[in-house]
Amino acid sequence: MRLYPIALLAALFFLCSTPVAAQFRTAMKTANKQYDINAYNLAVQSYLAALERRPDDPEALGKIADSYRHLNMMEDAARYYSQAVRQRDINKQHFLEFGHVLRALGRYDEAKQWYDTYARDVNQMVGQQYSQSCDFAKQQITATSGFTVVPELLNTPSSDFGPGIVGNDQVVFNSARTDLTAPGTFSGAAGNSLLVATIGQDRFLAIPYLLRNGYTVDGGNPGPVSYSPDGTMVIFTRNNFVDGTRQIPSSGMQLALFQANVTSSGEWNNVRPYPFNGSEYSTGFATFTPDGRGIYFASDRPDGFGGYDIYVSYLVGNSWSTPENLGPVVNSPGNEITPFFDGANLFFSSDWHHGLGGFDVFRSQPENGRWTQIFHMGAAVNSPRDDYSYNFDDTRNLGYVVSNRTGGSGNEDIYRVTRSADNITLVIKNAADGSPVANAVVDFVECGEGAYQAGAEGLYTFQAMQGLNCNLVIRKDGYVSAMVPLATTGNGEQKEVIVNLTKINETYVGKVVDYATRIPLQGVKVKVTNRTTGSQSETTTDVNGDYYVAMVPYTTYDYLIANPGYQDIIFGLPVEDGRNRSVLGVIGMQPGTSSANNGGTPVTPNPVTPVTPGGGGTGTTVQPGYAVQLAALSKADLSRFGDLSNLGQVYAVQDGSRYKVRLGVFTTREQADQALRNVKGRGYNDAFIVTEAGSTTAGGNTPGPVTNPTNPVSNTGAYMVQLAAYSKPEYFDRTKAETMGTITSRQKNNLTVMLVSNIATLADARSIRQRARTAGWNGAFVVQDQNGQLIKVE
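Below the sequence we write its predicted structure tokens.
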């Protein structure tokens, strides 16, 4: 009978606890359903109700923490994960998720500990990857990246995402804000709409308005979008994003691609699905290539390297090619999304490659058609949270990235991106008189950009971003193109660069050599002053010792020629009627200290007999070395060898009644061997190398100082057409090519470049280019010679 009170108490406890257990099970059932359909905001409330009944339940703790993680509420997530991982029956996947949350909070040392625990207990490869990423983040988080990132003023408390530049001054983006929905379309369900904003003069986006495209997507929301460069086609993602939930694969995002034609009024018609969508996987985040003939996109289709991978597909006729996976350098066991290809670099976001946390933006460059390396975009573009949808316009120095980093206005925000840049103004002048050259073309092709037109006053201003190291080409019909080296620090410097363009019919060429050795001197500064106008221009000698200046008839010019280690040369030069283009001749510089710059007596020029215009000298001593013998003649007439003078000095040595014509002198046998290959490439098949013991040149008619007949400043032509480059030049059909004009060649590494030279005008060059392509040289293009380099014109 003494057991009766105990049994009664047990019965009472059971009756009282049954409703609590039932309530817990009911709350967990509801919460798990909401969790499974990715309704994390609802699941949080249900898990809170369950935890009121059972505060230490490992499933409820782990899943409410994960729900907060998907809602980007990282502090709350960390609080519940810290409780969950102490429970005995915890799902060990939460170790990895807890590491992700701590990394998102910038607590890298703590995150590393949980990644290491995950590596030990669950998956070594995954755990070690993220553990090493914490070490990377600690080094990068304070490093200078060269970018400035600021939030756009149009951001709202809702989700703003998917920006893309359209045309000259507009950006199309998505927003979950409800104040701009079309009348009668708001249903109360979470969604997002396409908006348009203009880039203002302050470079911030102006007040947005609805994109009026006349189309409503079924089963989701349209966007992000990408317009083709010509604006006639759009490709867009159908998304199911929920405002407040992170736009990441584990949030249950379902994407599909569609394309449409765009009318002149901006409406979308003939909307059709991308043919490689799939019902079992997602395809989205597509952007056009700069030529409009391809798209890069992300997809979690089977047979990839991880979750979402980056693919490329090309427009062939009216259909798309089978998507090509970009391979394991870009793609990973994790997720890669939001690709953007600017023609030179691919930008994308990844949650696997070493970064700061969440999704980070990376860059990759193709080499020989393959992606071989990736680069992290730094701590300004990236943050410990999600950073994605990066796109950038180099010509504007303006781009955008989407981020849910702390300090923003809402769930996802749009940030404006600029690179540290120098402000550069080109002042383009006529080299002869200093007058402005209007509407010249400023070609950034070598820098990875297009060509643009300077103003009527000869001015062109642009921003050159940090780390730029390339050559600009300034050109205008009737002028010799000028090459301007561009190297920038990105420190915001203000630079003014004078560019002197020389008219083809006002161009004179001179040559500077060492007086004793007759070796051409490269990098010699030549300063020319017009006595009448006072205008000045400067140039330097190229690898052949040649320089080019503009002079107008019946004007006197003052020359200063200076080179370290040599005596300065100063002289005045009157130009008569302009017919004698050889008036500058070849000048020999004597070693010594600079006299003109130190107030000393200037030195007059030293002409070098073997190449003095007009020839007929009494001979000069040739230094010992190696030479290429070209011919043996009965008369020392060297004018026929003018096409070789850019390879070295052409001279004649008398041997009895014959004159041996040679090219040299070269210090080493290797130099002579290279010269011989170049000579034979120009048709002198009987040439051979001789040892020059030292002799005296014969007087006679010598080549003029215009060292390269294919150079654009020669009086025989300003343009050339490059036909092809050959590893075996004997396969070149010279007979067929000579029907188009004078054929010359250049050596480039182990290739022989064959050219049609001496073309007077760009129009003639275009005509010959077309003839060349018709004749079978399909890759023919127009070039000019700038300081020994072939510069592509078009």
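Confidence is low (pLDDT under 50) at residues 183-189, 596-604, 606-619, 699-717.
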